[in-house]
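Discussion board: Methods & Data

I've been asked by a reviewer to show the raw model output for two of the constructs in my manuscript, not just the figures. I'm not sure how much to include, so I'm pasting the format here to get opinions. Each protein appears as its amino acid sequence followed by a line of discrete structure tokens. Is this the kind of thing reviewers expect to see in a supplement, or should I convert it first? Here is construct A:
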Amino acid sequence: MSLLPSSARRWAPIALAVVVLDQLTKWWALNTLDDRDIDLFWTLRFNLSFNNGMAFSQGEGLGPVIGVLALVVIVALVLSVRREDNALADVAVGLIVGGAIGNVIDRLFRDPAWMRGAVVDFIDFQWFPIFNVADMGITIGGILLIAVSWWSARQAEQAEQAEQADGVAGDGAGETNDSPESKDA
């Protein structure tokens, strides 16, 4: 018997993997990139940066609000996924929850203070905002969740249309015409 509900057993390992990978890569970045950048290829480089705001460095100084909102999103996703029986939705929720937790950990425990910490970013294309593994999980998970929602709505619509078509086809099947005009013929 597991302590986790069945839906959590599906997405929680993915979330845990994202959190662990995110925190390990941030630890690496803090210890390796404090005094240098590493150019990889094309415009991709590892470049240590700290973000006190939200995505794309917007909302500077709103760390506590962003942290609370992230926790609300985590709870909402966890509650909503209980109703889904879709493996891709579980992957999406695991990626989003893991990414959100990874960034909330930074906000909670990094300097300058509790819930005012800066998120560690280090993946830099130089033409796109700098991001981290948690951000990748949130973005990829969000795209997957949108795709799953679209696909599920499409499947439900097709099932409803098929049901309506079966209902229309069944209305005249097997019925006899007992009207007075048919008996006279």
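Construct B, same format:
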Amino acid sequence: MHIDRIIAPILYEGLCRSLIRKAKFEQRPHFLYPLIELLALHIMKHNIELPSDWCIVPTSKASLKTRGFCQTNLMFKQLKYHLEPHQFTPIKFVPLHRTIQVSAQHTRSKQDRHKLNSRFFATDNTVPRHILLIDDVVTTGSTLNACAERLIKSGAERITAITLARTPA
């Protein structure tokens, strides 16, 4: 794994699972707001220090077309709103792009998920040394790991990941 730390305080089950699924698959992005706020409160309550350079796991073009929004971009904006006043330095966006479009991870087997690697993603330039990588749910960690691998190949030395939820072990 190319990630130093994953912050994922909520289990992907029950109400959390329902809110995320309704947001993503029933075009109700506002259902993510309470989960994003809980995540921000968790970070503040535990005095978790975050880097000032933030990157999102990019949504595929097909998912973006179907949903009409990018859930990780929404997370970026809302987390920035809640957390930037508590940061010592302004939060900066570090772009990451998909170079190869694949089917959504939730439709793929565990074995197929692990085939995802850094060649599926690209950065515009050299990236900062420490980056916060944002995704909605961590299941196998393969998406986060593939993105982190690309960021490291582009100059990052440390990757901290943050997600709304994690699947139960």
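Answer (T.O., handling editor elsewhere):
This is acceptable in a supplement if you add a one-line summary per construct. For B, something like: The CA atoms of residues 136 and 164 lie 5 Å apart.
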